[in-house]
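Why this split exists: single-chain examples teach little about how molecules sit against one another. For that reason, every record in the complexes split bundles all components of an assembly together and asks for one structure covering all of them. Below is a record exactly as it appears in the raw files.
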Amino acid sequence: MSDNTAAPVVKSEHEIGSGMSKKQAKKIRMQSMSKEEISYVRRKAALEKIWPFFRFVILFGLGFVILYPLIYMVSCAFRDRADMNDPTVMWIPRHYTIEIMKETIKAMDFGKTLKTTLLLNIGCSFVQVISCAITGYGFARFNFKGKKFLFLIVIMMILVPPQVISLPLFAQFRFFGIKGLFSINLIDSMLTMYLPAITANGIRSGLMILIFRQFFKGLPKELEDAAYIDGCGPFMTFIRVMIPNAASSFLTVFLFSVVWYWNDYYVSTTFFTNTNTVATMLYNIDTRLSEHLFSDATVKIDPRELIVWKEAGCLLSITPILVLYVLLQKHFTEGIERSGLVG
Amino acid sequence: MNEQNAVSAKTEVKDKKKKVRRMPYERRKALYGYGFISLWLVGTLMFFLIPLGKSLWYSFNKVTIETGGIVTEWKGLGMYSYALNEDRDFTDNLSSMLIETLWKTPLILIFSLFIAVILNQKFKGRTLSRAIFFLPVIIVTGPVFKIINGDMESTGNTGAEQFSTMFSTDLVGELMQFLGIYGLSDKMNTIISAVADNIFGIVWSSGIQILLFLAALQNIPPSAKEAAQMEGATAWEYFWKITFPYVSPFILANLIFTVIDSFTSPMNTVMKRILETKSEWKYGEASAMAWIYFLIVLAAIGIISAIVNKFIYYEVD
């Protein structure tokens, strides 16, 4: 409601007294308004009444588009495969079973896979966040020759898709060492993921360096000066002054890093032949299933029925990350706003 | 008082120490800067720049892998002409992918801005709706999305069909008829149906974009909103005169992000073709394809950012 309408109300209420209904007050208020004002107020009131309804419809519909596959996943994972061919079964299965889940766990070798994934995932994410923070700090707070050019390389790291460099990288890890002196085969060892992570060159590290640079740029310069006067060298300043200030943005970037490493199957399928993460398992789930469950050639599985196992695999592999998301939802969504990527 | 004296005494001592050292503070700081980025510099040389250069080199060569290393044979532009002239799959995928990116990117941007504006309003259940709309962020980069999408397609549940099969009517058509816009023009019908059919892909790939737009919206000072209300701006005017200028810098960022995201998406058919070529041990050809795709997209981003930059309003502090 605009302010120029509020003034006459107060006045009129004073004049006539308090023994007046709201309707009458409104009538008097309307009389003191010009035609344009009345139409504006009316339009606004109508919009305010209708809009929440439309908003609800829009959000509900689109939210359903997002949740639909997840609900479907849960519904599929616990149903018997015969239900897939039953046209009356859409959401609620007729025959509940946890056999499918058990079989999928067996086929994916879930215990061992999960262990490998966590070892790779948490370790790499952690190391990469630290190395990217150090690099980002270097770009944000120091002036040195060639900084602009070097930062251009960081931008390039964001733009170049991993597929472009994956083959030379593979060769590099296959014959790792100094040419002519020695070379070791690093393929299938976790070092292929850890080495780039340690040197801030892992999955989406360019983006992470950028985020940290923006964040550290936003911190006041006085912090640094104060630390210097108190006798801190630049490195100690970073550890004792800057890192505590950046705690929440560290957590956000770490969470995103965990998600990206968890979901990565491209880099892992390039460098691993025998080591399997949850993502690579799921990527090859068709072959895994046919090897472990349907190795008997007489068993014929309809592709429609295969969905049951696939959805069970999906459910298994997103559950850990989903739990993380539900628990730390705030840091996923609010951290980016505070991390300084904005502005 | 005493403490202050102690501090100033300390700084004096420091100053004396500084004089003893030859190197000026600024240069010392620059050296520290190199120190901070040295780790990344080494890694980037080894795991980014050298591989990048090599892959460019491979794209001009016939590459064969033998025991003991990689053997290259100079072919000039032969690999590029192979990719463009002989590999039908690649060129077909490339053109369809580029066309898809061309119309999907603006849709994703418009959609995510719209949703961000809604999610920025105050209403009951806002936190829950935000959580739901950001949910794709954690799933869409992984293989789960590929399976979900595949299963939806094989059971005929993508897009508008998903609702239509559930309620067994042509929902989009009905809605358009209800609004009285059905049959106004054939073109509009096809556009609306196309959007509705792809709603699944669009909603699922605009998580981060919504997040960024929402962050931008929260940067709009409340005074701007107050002033607009005083002047009697309608919601429509408010959007175009206040909201849009404020979020415009993020349109470019989101645009670049969307395009890059489509690179690494599991649904990207061009990348699939490149990987297939690679698994046939045709490394030179695969590198050439990757570079063609990369250069086209880079050029597109360059042109679009040059155009968009002209219309962006940057707040001068």
